[in-house]
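User: Before I run my own analysis I want an independent prediction to cross-check against. Here's the chain; please return only the structure tokens and, at the end, one sentence I can use as a sanity check.
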Amino acid sequence: MKFISHSIIVLLLNLLSVGVFAQIEIKNNHLTGSLRRYEKLQSAFISPRNVDVWLPQDYQSDGSVKYAVLYVHDGQNLFYPEVSFSGTDWGLDELMDSLMRLGIIRKTIVVGIWNTPRRLLEYTPENKLTQKDSTKTMPLKWDLKHTAMSDAYLQFIFNELKPMIDSQFVTKADMKSTYMMGANLGGLISLNALCKYPDQLKGIAGIAMQWPASFQEKSELEIQQYIDYYLYYLPNPALHKIYFDVDGSMRNAWNMRQQAYIDEHCFANSYNNSKNFMSLVFTDNLKQESEWRKRLAIPIQFLLKL
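Assistant: Structure tokens:
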């Protein structure tokens, strides 16, 4: 019997643990391109969930073209309405396919990571800011009432899911070809991912950003302390890019002030030109898919423009 190295055994076990063999093709009249699904994908870090992989109509599996990868949170809301939370999907498949056919954006596949009942815990980063003049760690109050799972969620994406996607599809696995996007707290966990995995992620987009001070909204000071984490941990602006947009209606004035605060931190870290930073205000007054899909071309082109 031939000797099998320990590293190969570990690789095989990792692949099995995330359910390589669970891939099925989804048929739906609303879809442009093709959609593959890993149902109840297993993980060593978080609970199982569905993961969708969208491929453009002209996807080449022979290796003649290698594709960038866009990872998107709340994956059930992206491609067709029957499984979307609001009954309206983002229309991401039609938009991506159209922009690629026009030669506006890079050849890209989309990985939609479905949320679970633990969405709040997984999408809320538990930032701990280490003060520069001491070794004291300042814990920030978030009133989660349960242990935050954001670090485990990101470990699933970068330690398990990304290696699997790069092994199963014709992708460019480097940092310069890997992107992430989400809405509300999905944007917040995307920003956190950029700070914690800058060697694996080129750019992120946060749609309708949400900045609660705590889940009981005790004070603005708490959220500003929370946001201060990013002042120190935003990665090199010469290598990365960040997009935000926010609902600017009167009812959302509190959130707008927090967005202005994070924008200041981005400016202080030299995210200050059209190539690496964009922060927009929309007055749609609605935080839902029907409004987001109207402006989705803006962050997609910002991230993926040729």
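Sanity check: The two ends are 50 Å apart (CA to CA).
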